[in-house]
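[09:14] KT: can someone run the structure on this one? pasting the chain below
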Amino acid sequence: MQTKRRSTFPLGIFVVAVVLRSVSQISAGIYSTGFDTMSGYIVAILNPLVINLKTICTGIFGEFVLKSILSLTNANPFLELKIASPLIYGIFSVSFFYMLKNGLKWSNRLSLFCTFLLILQPAILRLGWDALDEELAFSFFFILIGIAGANLLSNEKLFWKLLLTILIFFTEPLVAVLLTVVFAFQLVKSGIIRKNLVTSLTLCSVVLFLLLLTLIEFAKPNLLPSSPSLNLTYAVRGPQTVPLGSTLGISSSGLVNYFQADGRFIGGSYQNLLEYIFSLSIYTTLPLIIPSVYGFYKDKIAMPMTIFLLIAGYSIVVIPTDAIPFYNRWILLLPIPLTFYATNGFNKLTKKIRSPSKVEVASIILACMFVIGGLYSVSTILPVNQQAGSYIPKGLSATAFPLEEIPGLQAIDGSLNSNLMSHSAILTNENYEGYLKSNLDQRYTVYIVPSQFNIESALSLMHSEVNGSFYVVWYAIGNSASYNLTTIIQQNGVGLYLL
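[09:31] RB: done, structure tokens below
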């Protein structure tokens, strides 16, 4: 009976993870939840697969899988993402449990507690809200440790190590960097001793080569554009889309001046920067700090990840003019290694408490986490301030545009192609890029501006690039005549306009 119950742990974890993510997808209506899923993934899977150095280094495996499924099933791309998102989160959750139990040799109960403590956190639920590639790459990462154990330099299972390492690098660069950090830490700590010479040299060569390729693109992040630039990016199925803007604030070394590159802090507002980082930390790292410090121990996996993520995530606070790129994404990943230590902290604490029992304490903690995770999946429970709200959604049912705009988008959908003349130019916010990509059935040129741009800034860029009439899909504009816009249709906070 005991063996049978243990064998159901992975299935139970998978079901809980899938249900948590599915509830938010159902409540989001016909479109998929998340920002990047609507503005990036839809565009990527509808476009033809391009295999070159840039796409390989920035992660192509997830796109290849989604595109292959779409070509085989001819399904609606929104429906595909609504199904894929819960399944990938289920795989992510089970692989984490597998790593703890098989790779790190934790007990079943402790592995189960740690897994639920991780996957019920709003920060981790948000991870795959619009970053499916990160979840998939972490699944490979966890499986790698589950197969190879904590010591990546051992001579055992070299084939699986190489295969999973390559999959990680071809899926998500950020996770590839974390793998490199862990590998380098173990390499420096252990030294290339004779019994591990073949494995160490082989893995070192592969990892360093892949990291070099990855950093070619990783060191040049796509931050907030603010000056005109026309580079045709998509041109085959559906409309052509052209990004308006170029990257500012990035030095030759790849470090970022966020006072120039991030719209939240442009002009050198250090107070705004601190408020944003603090509010972001409230939902990611601060709840885990006390149990993590209490449960900290030296290990070969979580410790190097934690050290690197703390430096990469919070370097912006120390030197905002020369910080490591993607600080917000690094901060969002910090709960993964911190959950290791938090679990150990809770485990140490319960050993010192006679009443209530360890099982009762764990049950209370997980019950609270189930309430938080469940409510976050179905409602907008987080009182996120305006700063952090640009990266942490109040609830998982949020999408690239407010749910109340969906009826308006459906109304626009019915008249979009009938109103637009062939080869028209369209200006829109990046929030609607995926929507337009999936609904325009002719060849148009769509000009995309960042979500932080208002209509006045967007039109000023557009006037400098396009001659003649063009259309605008935007949030509802109160006095459209003041912008020389003629309203074609406007409903539920979104409108289609003609300039």
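[09:33] KT: thanks! The chain has 22 helices and six strands.
[09:34] RB: yep, looked fine to me
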